[in-house]
Amino acid sequence: MTFAELPDTIPLFPLPGALLLPRSRLPLHIFEPRYLQMLEDALKTRQRMIGMIQPRGMPAGGGEKRLSAIGCAGRLTAFSETEDGRYMVTLTGISRFRIKRELQGFAPYIRAEVSWDGFERDLGRAEQDDGFRREQFLDLLGRYFASEQLATDWGTLKEAEDELLLNSLSMLLPFEPEEKQALLEAPTLATRRETLVTLIEFALRSGGDEEIVQ
């Protein structure tokens, strides 16, 4: 998809902790009626795009939940329907976006006018991280997985390309929504890796592991 083909308006799916990144895949289980409608409407469009966005929680004094300013739009690349009318879908990340304004209308879900400016690199080739020291990073990751009692296929991690490895971990590791947002907004893969390392180190410190990779 080219920059010119990106739509001016997209439906938004606010989901705390669910992170989508460019060139990555996010599986979703959709069952709420309003989001089933959103899915059906998106499938009717040429781009088949849905914007994933983090809610920012209840503002002071109550009122409606606010949304983060930046999200990531994905193209529906796989879907299947269950016998009870739910959908299992896969979004493939296309580009991050910035919300310009939410649109009023008759749809039961949120639609927004968005800007893609500043995220042109999202449509290009996979990024490289020249400063990535994989062996050191995997050692840190191993201690984190042990502390969180998580399991993984280490062979796959060792063989994965830099972007796939770092983006997959950013999406899958159990960070808080605001931490996921920081990973999303990282301007480069190197910055995302640095943010990821910082979050892992913080988790290890909180868990009593003081040995940190320099």
Number of helices: 6
Q: What would the principal axes of the Cα set say about the shape?
A: globular
**Topology as a string of helices (H) and strands (E):** EEHEEEEHHHHH
Order of neighbouring strands in the sheet with most strands: 1-3-4-5-6
Number of domains: 2
Distance between the termini: 39 Å
Q: Under the CATH scheme, which class of the largest domain?
A: Mainly Beta
Spans of at least 5 consecutive residues with low confidence: 210-214
Q: How would you explain this protein's 3D organization?
A:
By secondary structure, the chain is of the alpha+beta class. The chain folds into 2 domains: 3-123, Archaeosine Trna-guanine Transglycosylase, Chain: A, domain 4 (Roll); 134-206. Helices cover 33% and strands 24% of the residues. The chain contains 6 helices and 6 strands. The protein has helices at 33-43, 134-148, 154-159, 162-172, 177-185, 189-206; strands at 9-14, 25-30, 49-53, 70-81, 87-103, 110-115. It has a 5-stranded mixed barrel with strand order 1-3-4-5-6. β4 and β5 form a beta hairpin. The radius of gyration is 18 Å and the shape is globular.
Fill in the keyword field for this structure.
214 residues; alpha+beta; Archaeosine Trna-guanine Transglycosylase, Chain: A, domain 4; 2 domains; five-stranded mixed beta barrel; 33% helix; 24% strand
